[in-house]
Amino acid sequence: KSPQPIMARPLLKIHRYFRRKPIRFFSFILLYLTAGSLVFLHSGFSSDTSTTGASGSGRDPLISEGGGGTGAGSSTSDALGLLGRVFKETRRAPRRFRPPWMKENGAQDAPEGRNTKHIGCYIDDTQKRALRGVSFLDYKKMTVFRCQDNCAERGYLYAGLEFGAECYCGHKIQAPNVSESECNMECKGEKSNLCGGPNRLSIYRLELSQESARRYGSAIFKGCFKRPDNVTLALPASAVIKNMSVDKCVDMCTEKEFSLAALAGEKCHCGFPTPLFTLHEREDEELCLQHCAGEDFESCGNNDFFVVYQTQVQDNRCMDRRFLPTRSKHLVALASFPGAGNTWARHLIELATGYYTGSYYFDGSLYNKGFKGERDHWRSGRTICIKTHESGKKEIEVFDASILMIRNPYKALMAEFNRKYGGHIGFASQAHWRGKEWPEFVKNYAPWWASHTLDWLKYGKTVQVVHFEDLKRDLFSELKGMVIFLGLEVSVDRLLCVEGQKDGNFKRSGLRKLEYDPYTPEMRATIDGLIKTVDTALRKRNLSGVPKEYRPR
Description:
By secondary structure, the chain is of the alpha+beta class. The protein is built from 17 helices and 20 strands. It folds into 3 domains: 117-205; 215-310, no CATH class; 332-510 and 517-550, P-loop containing nucleotide triphosphate hydrolases (Rossmann fold). The chain is 37% helix and 17% strand. The protein has a 6-stranded antiparallel β-sheet with strand order 2-4-3-8-1-5, covered by helices on one side. Strands 9-15-11-12-10 form a 5-stranded antiparallel β-sheet. A 5-stranded parallel β-sheet has the order 17-18-16-19-20, with helices on both faces.
C-alpha cells in the first residue's frame, strides 16, 4: 500500500478534533496565550540584555552575585529579573541589602549617598534596650532598608532589626554582641534578608549624609519654662558648653539618651518630663530671649527661664504593653463613630495603662502595627477596653461600661472618607472627592454620626463622654480621667511619657489639604441640624454639650 493514506490518518484525526466547536475554541485560546507568553519572555530577555549590556553584565541588579555568569546561571538570573518586573518590585540596586555573609568581601550595598556597615548580632533585653531611640514595627512589610532609612532620617547612628519585623534606632549600642547565627529570622517584607531574631538585633551603623546630619538637630521646640525648684533632680544631666547653641545642647542630650534638652545660658540640662518638670506651664517666650553665644539668631534662655526642646530620643517609660494578668468579665467599650479618633485613643490608652486594647473587629493592618489585642476575640477578657463602631440597643447592652468618643462631624466625616479610600493614614484622591462618592457618603454617614451618639447615650449602662477636641487640647487631664474610668491607678510618669509621643503611627501628615470646601450648603444645613440634636441630648444628661467649634456658625 501507498504510505500516503497511513500518514493521512493522524491528520484526519486532528481535523475531526478541531471540528468540535468547544474544543476548537479552547484550543485556539491556549495557542494564543502560549504565543503571547513566548513573545513576552523574548522581549523580557532582550530588555535585560540591552539594559545591562552597557555595564558589561547580563545579570539583573537585584540578584545577589555569586556562581558562574554564563550558561544556566545566566538564564536563571534573567528569569528571576523578569519575575521581579512582573511583580513590580523596585529595581534600584543601591537600595538592596543583604547580610555580609552573602557579599563578596563582606561589602554592603547601601542607598545612594549613604554608607552603611553591618556591625553584628546583639542581645536585646525588653527591659533595657540595646538601642534606646525611637522604634517602630511592621509585621508585614519590614525590610532592612526601611529600618535604616527611618533611623537615618531621624539622625541616628545605628539601626537594628529584631524578630523579623521590629526596628530600633539609637546613638550607641548598650548590649554585648553574640554569634551571627543567632540573628536568623527572615525579614517580613524581604525574605532574602535576615532581620535579627528573638531578643536579638542585627545592627547597622549609618554614615549620615549632610542632610540627615542637619535633621539631627531638628528637635521639637517645647517652649519657655521656669527653672524647676530642684533642677539637679528634675534634669539629672548637665554641662557648661562653650559657645552654646541649640544644636550643641540637643546633641549632648541625645547622646546621653534623654528626651529633653533645656538651655540655660551657657549651661545645658538633660532629662525627661517628670512631676518636677511637667512642661504644663509655659511662660512668655520673651523671658527666654537671651542670644546663644555660639549662634546670635537663637535663644538659649538664662538661669531662671529655660528654653526646652524635645530630642529624637524615645521615652521608654510608657512603651511596655501586655495583656491583662487575669481575664476580666467587665467589658468596657471604646465606642466611636468611624473617623472620630478611635485608633488614636487606643494608642494613648495602651501607652497610659500598659495594657492592650481589643476590637469588635479584626484589622490586620492594625495588628501588624502593634495592636496585639486586635487578634483576640472581643469577649476574651484579656484587653483593657474594646474598640467598636456599632450602635443599636442589642450591640450596646452587651457592654458593662463605655468610653464614648465624639468628634466634630465635619472633621470625622472627612477623616473616615480618607480612611475608606486611602487607608488609616492615607488620603482619598481628588477624583473621589469630586465624584459621586463624596455626596453619597455624606448622605449615608452624617445621620449615622448623630444616631451613634444618641444610641450610646440612651442604651449605655455607664458612659464616659470624651470629645476628640478636648483630648487633643488637654491630653494629660482627659487621658487621666479615662484611666481612672477604666479602674486603674494613674501613673503620672506614664502620662507625661505619652505626651511626648502622643501621635504614634496613625496621624495623617496634614500636608494634603483640600483646596476647596467639600461641603455644599445643603450638606451643612443637614449636619448643623444633627449637631443641635446631639448637643441637646448631651445637656439633658447634665453634660457640657458639644464643644463650641462644633456649633453652627
